[in-house]
Write a structure and sequence with these properties.
Structural class: mainly alpha
Helix content: over 70%
Shape: rod-shaped
Largest sheet: none
Order of helices and strands: HHHHH
Distance between the termini: 171 Å
Strand content: under 5%
Length: 174
């Protein structure tokens, strides 16, 4: 029973977090290629198998550094890539809006041309556009024409005879 209590009891000693080594210390720890090669060649004493392993180790270390650099570059490029994608999305949205507006303009221009042709056609064919087209205006026009033509001839003859009498007839006062 005491073993179970030990498992569930609170620890009195909380381990402190390990401090990360500073960059300067890491640089001191890392050996340069020359130092690493010099040390391994001393230990190898000219053995070609150890030399091959050391070269492989240097190569893998170099590849690891390249991978780390590539990861770092991607990490640093990420905000710019995201911003670029945002701009591309915004550009696509604006192109879509522009195409919708252009399509609307074309539709409105088509409607305007249809309305203009209908305006011209109303004068010639009003029955097509107006339901209660009145035949009275045509009838009134022809009746008025029938009345005005004889009155015009009568007035024309009257004024011609009056002007003849006034200018060419001689009046005797005797």
């Amino acid at each position: 029973m005491t073993a179970l209590k030990k498992i569930f009891s609170l620890k009195k000693n909380v381990p402190q977090e390990m401090e990360k080594p500073k960059e300067e210390e890491v640089k001191k720890i890392k050996l340069s290629f020359f130092e690493s090669g010099y040390g391994s060649s001393k230990q190898a004493a000219g053995n070609h198998m150890i030399f091959k392993a050391c070269l492989q180790d240097v190569y893998m270390d170099y590849k690891g550094k390249c991978r780390e650099d590539e990861r770092l570059q991607k990490e640093l490029k990420e905000p710019y890539v995201q911003e670029k994608s945002k701009h591309e999305i915004e550009l696509k949205k604006r192109k879509t809006v522009k195409s919708i507006i252009d399509e609307g303009i074309v539709n409105l221009e088509n409607k305007i041309s249809i309305f203009k042709s209908e305006i011209a056609d109303v004068k010639h064919n009003p029955e097509k556009y107006v339901e209660d087209v009145d035949k009275k205006p045509k009838a009134q026009f022809y009746l008025g024409l029938i009345v005005l033509i004889p009155i015009t001839f009568y007035l024309l003859v009257f004024y011609i005879s009056a002007s003849y009498s006034a200018f060419f007839k001689t009046f005797n006062t005797e």
